[in-house]
Specification:
The complex is a heterodimer.
Chain A: E1 2-3, E2 10-11, E3 22-24, E4 31-37, E5 40-44
Chain B: E1 9-13, H1 18-29, E2 34-38, E3 55-59, H2 65-75, E4 79-81, H3 84-90, H4 93-102, E5 110-113, H5 116-126, E6 130-133, E7 144-146, H6 149-162, E8 170-174, E9 181-188, E10 191-199, E11 212-215, H7 220-233, E12 237-244, E13 250-256, H8 262-268, H9 272-284
The chains are: A mainly beta, B alpha+beta.
The structure holds zinc ion.
Zinc ion binds next to loops of chain A.
Chain lengths: ~55, ~290
């Protein structure tokens, strides 16, 4: 568990999560990046760039 | 088991999405030491400092940065999947079309113009509806279906106002009235790994835009066509998107060099990530 830096909601982090993974806050839907797992640390995910994609 | 910077195999990411997690999973299951590079931390001297890696799985999501990543690593003797040459071709819709047409492969009729006036003239010859695409777009961004000349004029004016120099290369294609789906195959080297349909009500059938997916049989025709497409753009690990004409004829729509494959894995149960890892290990002789 960690808190959303945007709305402070509790965000659960699954056992198979990885550093760098993007999760979505269940409350405010903000995209969050997992910066650390032990202890869990979340930050706002980097913006999707205009030239990103497949 | 992501061991230090000195593992022979590196994986460079922009974000750790399902695809990248599955690649890490596959490497760990196979007990392959690897180094996870985050593109935000990357810096590389062009000479002098030794580079520890023999191979790179390039998962950079930026169409601007990815070709440079590939060139940088290749210049230091690292085998990059996909190669900078393949990225250069597949990252540009016009270069892709030229490679396909030169190889005699079936594609939607395509034309290019450099001014809105010339584009409108080409569209008059072409007929409507037609599709306008940015030459370097991705995720279906800024695709416009134009049903008549009025719509085309409006879109072309917007392109001019947007002002990016890339928008002054106007890429036009006939609109294919596909049966609510398109078809994707994944090719790894000389192997057609799997195939699926993407279904959507909207004419842009893109998984990132909410299309649903189902597995598709790899017929001999589809396999042969896929391998010819892969060869035409330089080979490697590719996702090839096809459209179908009403009579069933397959047309190559797009070739993707940094494929997203979680939809494919769900639809076909094929472990694309593991196959990709195996392919890179083979090519790099690791
Ligand atoms: Zn939140």
């Amino acid at each position: 568990m960690s808190n959303c830096p945007e709305c402070d909601a509790q965000v659960s982090i699954t056992a198979d999560a990885r550093v760098g993974e993007i999760v979505t806050c269940p409350d405010c839907q903000t995209e969050l990046e997992i910066l650390g797992l032990d202890p869990a640390e979340l930050a706002l995910a980097p913006e999707v760039d205009e030239d990103w994609g497949e | 088991m992501s061991v230090g910077r000195d593992a022979p195999l590196a994986v460079l990411t922009s974000r750790v999405r399902i695809e990248e997690k599955r690649i890490f999973d596959a490497l760990e299951r196979r007990n392959i030491p690897y180094c996870h590079l985050d593109e935000r931390d990357l810096s590389m001297a062009l000479a002098d400092e030794p580079v520890p890696w023999a191979a790179l799985i390039n998962r950079c999501m930026s169409n601007t940065r990815s070709p440079y990543v590939a060139r940088l690593f290749e210049a230091r003797g690292v085998m990059v999947c996909n190669s900078s040459q393949v990225i250069a071709t597949c990252g540009d819709k016009l270069l892709t079309s030229l490679a396909l047409v030169q190889a005699g492969l079936p594609t939607p009729r395509t034309a290019v113009a450099l001014t809105p006036e010339a584009a409108l003239e080409a569209l008059d010859r072409f007929g409507y509806p037609a599709v306008l695409k940015p030459v370097s777009g991705s995720w279906g961004r800024l695709l416009a279906k134009v049903n008549d000349r009025d719509a085309a004029e409006a879109v072309l004016e917007h392109k001019q106002v947007l002002g990016s120099p890339m928008h002054s290369v106007i890429y036009m294609q006939e609109y294919i009235d596909k049966p609510g789906r398109d078809l994707r195959t994944i090719v790894l080297g000389k192997r057609v790994l799997c195939a699926m349909y993407r279904h959507a009500e909207h004419w842009i059938t893109n998984t990132a835009r909410g299309a649903t997916t189902t597995a598709c049989e790899i017929t001999d025709e589809l396999a042969e066509l896929s391998l010819r497409v892969a060869h035409a753009v330089g080979g490697g690990a590719l996702a090839i998107d096809f459209l179908e004409r009403a009579d069933g004829t397959l047309l190559v729509n797009e070739v993707n060099h940094t494929m997203e494959f979680h939809g494919m894995m769900a639809a076909t149960k094929v472990d694309v990530a593991d196959a990709l890892v195996q392919y890179v290990l083979e090519v790099a002789e690791l």
